[in-house]
Amino acid sequence: RAKELGGRRVEVFAAHMHADVVRRLELAADLQRALLEDQFVIEYQPVVDLATSRVTAVEALVRWCQGGEFVPPEQFLGPAEDTGLIVPLSEWILREACREVAVWRASAWEIGLSLNLSARQIMAPRFVETVESALVESGLPPSALTLEVIEEMLVEDAEQTITRLSELRTLGVRLAIDDFGTGYASLALLRQLPVDMIKIDPSFVSGLGCDETLTLLTRTIVRLGHDLGLIVVAEGIERPEQLELLREMGCTRGQGFLVARPMAARGVDSLMRTSLSSLGTHA
Ligand code: C2E
Ligand code: MG
Ligand code: MG
Ligand code: MG
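# magnesium ion complex -> structure
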């Protein structure tokens, strides 16, 4: 009887596993097709200088437009990473975003581009050469490109990753640590790495003005970043009091729905045009 029950349990378990495997294979096939059929689009979220409110950069955020609906990156980046599809997908994002930002720079003012890197992408053979060729082909100066990594990437395979990032840095591109404060990277790592920027995670910013500890931690991160000579970007600014506090703390840059939502390339185009005509000082 126990055996029978156990057997059934194994069967149920196997059925679950089977369904899971099938789902993953289907997703992998869908992703492959999506890449071939140009179903991926890039949205850009403006990053502003908090002292001047001027747009200094845009962060490229990938979207999968499946049957007229946006699938959020959290749902397909993991599977894309597991199947290796992240490598060609990321290369497309890199080339496309460099090209678009180079055009905006030529027609308006000299904004920068931030790109999120994936662990597998960094380790792909010839990744450094790929970045170099994307820069040359687009005409985007290396100093205008910031590559964002999350702390986890610096902890796993730390040595290899740091070597790769250092190679990238010699191209003249900038490096940022994304979601700063949520991972397990030690502060010592910050000194080992040729990092230019830290991006404070929204989980800190969300508590600004309403949570004493989070406010204190944010202030501490801003000061730490400045003491290390880094650009400090606050992410996830949604409320005016958060913006005010960050300004008062001397945080360098900000990003969030209050400032601007991620938008299609067309949106950046018109944003840059309206900012140009209303302020007149950016050209
Ligand atoms: P991230 O790099 O930290 O990007 C910021 C995320 O916060 C974006 O989500 C953005 O839409 C969202 N966000 C911006 N302002 C606000 C705000 O005020 N409030 C809230 N609640 N959210 C805000 P998204 O686009 O869904 O991207 C999620 C993550 O997926 C990104 O986090 C990044 O880690 C990853 N990702 C996105 N695009 C790419 C890509 O092209 N390549 C790779 N490797 N990863 C990407
Ligand atoms: Mg990012
Ligand atoms: Mg982030
Ligand atoms: Mg994130």
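# post-check
Residues 56 and 102 are 14 Å apart (CA to CA).
Confidence is low (pLDDT under 50) at residues 279-283.
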